[in-house]
Amino acid sequence: QVHLVESGGGSVQAGESLRLSCTASGYTVNSACMGWFRQAPGGEREGVATIDKAGNTNYADSVKGRVTVSRDNAKNTLYLDINTLKPEDSAMYYCGASAGIFCFDFGTGYFRYWGQGTQVTVSS
Q: Checking CA distances to 33, which of 43, 80, 94, 114 falls within 20 to 30 Å?
């Protein structure tokens, strides 16, 4: 059984940084495409970053240059580093895991497993 557990969210000031973590069990983080998504109240879940089996990364235009997705295979953990946080980054952040080795786009239907999310709140 696959479990994804996100952590690292919090309430921060604009301009600060956060590192979000997603620890997996029953799933190997470097075995397939994984991604970070976020959902603001009343909004749809949107893609933030993905990383495929080979380590290729992709970022949403809204966060490009401020975000880095990475993984620690020994800890079986996926990370999302977000720098220069803005109030519009406030959302629940989720990690998703797929069964495919490639990442194609940010379509949520491609990701089979989801964590419970970690809240990020950025004040100005």
A: 43
Burial class (CB in 10 A: 0-12, 13-18, 19+), 11: exposed
Whether the CB-CB separation of 18 and 9 falls below 8 Å is answered with yes
Which amino acid, residue 61? D
Q: For 90-105, write each residue's pLDDT tens digit.
A: 999 999 999 999 998 8
- Cβ atoms of 121 and 90 within 8 Å: the answer is yes
pLDDT value of residue 56: 96
How far is residue 124's CA from residue 114's CA, in Å, rounded to a whole number?
A: 30
